[in-house]
Amino acid sequence: MYILILGNIVSKCNKLIDLARKFNIEVVTCNDIEQAIETFSIKNVVCTFADLSINTADYFKQLNNAKINMPTVLLGQASDMQKAVAGIRMGAIEFLPFPLDEDLLEPILNSLKKDSSTGPIARDDKTLKLLQMAEKFAKSNATVLLRGESGTGKEVFSKFIHTNSNRADQNFVSVNCAAIPENLLESELFGHEKGSFSGALTKRIGKFEQANGGTLLLDEISEMDASLQAKLLRAIQERVIDPIGSTKPVEVDIRLIATTNRDLEKQVAEGGFREDLYFRLNVVALELLALRERPGDILPLSQFFANKYAKQNGIEDTIEITEESITKLEECYWKGNVRELENTIHRAIIMMSDNIIRPDDIVISPMSLQMMEQEKPKPVAAPRPAANPLNSAASAYGAIDGLDKGQTAKIAANNQPSAMIGKTMQEVEKELIISTLNYCEGNRTHAANILGISIRTLRNKLKVYEEEFGI
User: Is this prediction's pTM over 0.90?
Assistant: First the structure.
């Protein structure tokens, strides 16, 4: 993995070069645009840091002509802000002024780095089971399809599978099929020969070849145009690709992982996705759960993001999240899943005081608030008390077919307050909680609202019941 420094600015980029080495990212330098375009064809360059004094319009034009999608950070003087804004409009992702600040460089390099030292942050039993499954089939070469809502961590799981595979020491190459224009995606995936189309000044190696021997992630594959799906199908089946303009197929040895947040079966039925490609991809499938379905992950993720953004803001102390704040986080719907949680914690770090995140520091998005309102159960009316509880209960139950007098009397007796005599408060509470949970068909949010307790309290009590009573 490389970053490329473009222009006569190497002497001003010592901090960038030193930091890249810490992230195990190699650095290559080029003095002109033509040399850079050629380098993109032969090295796995993941980002360019370009001198703002180059002809940025010509640079982005040549990238477009060569059908190269290259994240570019512009570097220059703070007084060059007008040129920087123009460059960002052309396609640059960021502008950093000289002298370079490590605190600004680190997040960029961190996002580029192949992080194989840590896996997904997980504490919930459901997530841990998914990770166990992923680790089992990571050693095979089977194609993996990861499904789940946006923000559930599909790319994190992809890297986890790669890290635990026999290809861990080889490249992990990611392509976002939704982020690259249709006319560029074919060249991005399969590469092209020099002169194969207007603007193809040099040969370009595609992502399939860059991932040769390693893992290729096709993110949001459901967004791929139908015309390109046939070519992808051949690459998966035959393990050969046809670069644009080439007369010879190129053999590739890759492990393919695809992700989607769409209903692929529905897309197949509607003709938007090839059925044969669907079956090729769906060899091993993992359905990643929404964050609201694995509440045990919320606290460790929140703590991780809190420490991460505290450090970025120059706070070295560990951040405390109050119990009330934890309850608020765990009761949120999280429409945007982990990505929304991260943004919420980032905002809370900015809003907090005394290195403590309090409930007022946590601002829930309108979309999640709307979903929480929709999920809120309707009030349940309490049953009207009968004048003679025993006779009323016996009469009601006796009207049910199939119950004899003995059964009716037994059921009526069990519904009397006297049936609770001799039981401890803990046993009565347990029966009430389990009965309410059964009434709500296992929906903990609804059950907690009816019982008048928080989801966190309900979960803690259920955990105690599981440990003590084996429920």
Answer: no
